[in-house]
């Protein structure tokens, strides 16, 4: 049973996790969701082709470019950005649905989207940036992940440098060298910021 909200209970936080592609943000956010029942994944909409291991509505909502642009025109997105040549966005309706259920939405989004959410929701947004151990380690992870062409990997590595430059604007930074260690650090951050005040 979820705790009842009172006038002293803080409103749900919006937990934003950003990282260069391949740094482990999806894995870490999935572990967080298993750890805390009052967290709920915010499923982004994207024009990116679906990977073999991805499920529609679980990992992303996959749409074509025309549909995405229609949603932009209709102001459906709280945030959207062009990343690695594909569009990604989070609908206002999906965020409000989670907030109304008194859960904390978790966003696995890029730095552009993170800054847009921060501008929209202010201090309710908790920004966490995941660093790879090094760019060389990041390259190895991208190669091992498969599904990305050599040119796509090079493009993601170039973008990683720019993304890391934005990390100073985040509330917390975590280096993902060992997944168990990184998750413990991330879990403690989320507990302190989202749950400790309501216990």
Describe the protein's topology.
Layout lengths: L13 E5 L6 H11 L3 E3 L2 E3 L13 E3 L2 H9 L3 E7 L2 E6 H9 L3 E5 L2 H11 L3 E7 L3 H11 L4 H16 L6 E4 L3 H17 L4
Parallel strand pairs: 1-7, 1-8, 2-7, 3-4, 8-9
Antiparallel strand pairs: 3-6, 5-6
Helix pairs in contact: 1-7, 5-6
Q: Could you describe the 3D structure shown?
A:
With 199 residues, the protein is α/β, with parallel strands linked by helices. The protein has a single domain (14-198), classed as Rossmann fold (3-Layer(aba) Sandwich), CATH 3.40.50. The chain is built from 7 helices and 9 strands; from the N terminus they run βαβββαββαβαβααβα. The protein has helices at 25-35, 65-73, 92-100, 111-121, 135-145, 150-165, 179-195, and strands at 14-18, 39-41, 44-46, 60-62, 77-83, 86-91, 104-108, 125-131, 172-175. The strands form 2 sheets. The protein has a 5-stranded parallel sheet with strand order 2-7-1-8-9, sandwiched between helices. It has a 4-stranded mixed sheet with strand order 4-3-6-5. It is globular and about 45 Å long. It starts with 13 loop residues before the first strand and ends with a helix. 32% of the residues are buried.
């Amino acid at each position: 049973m979820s705790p009842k909200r009172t006038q002293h209970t803080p409103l749900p936080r919006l937990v934003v996790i950003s990282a260069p592609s391949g740094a482990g943000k999806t894995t870490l956010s999935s572990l967080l969701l298993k750890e805390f029942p009052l967290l709920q994944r915010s499923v982004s909409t994207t024009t990116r082709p679906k990977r073999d291991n991805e499920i529609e509505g679980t990992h992303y909502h996959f749409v074509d470019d025309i549909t995405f642009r229609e949603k932009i025109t209709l102001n459906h997105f709280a945030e959207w950005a062009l990343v690695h040549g594909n569009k990604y966005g989070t609908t206002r309706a999906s965020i409000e649905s989670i907030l109304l259920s008194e859960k904390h939405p978790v966003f696995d989004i890029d730095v552009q989207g993170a800054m847009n959410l921060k501008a929209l929701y202010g201090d309710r947004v908790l920004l966490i940036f995941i660093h790879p151990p090094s760019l060389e380690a990041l390259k190895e992870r991208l190669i091992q992940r498969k599904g990305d062409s050599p040119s796509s990997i090079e493009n993601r590595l170039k973008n990683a440098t720019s993304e890391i430059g934005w990390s100073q604007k985040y509330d917390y930074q975590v280096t993902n060298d060992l997944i168990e260690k990184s998750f413990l650090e991330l879990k403690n951050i989320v507990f302190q910021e989202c749950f400790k005040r309501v216990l």
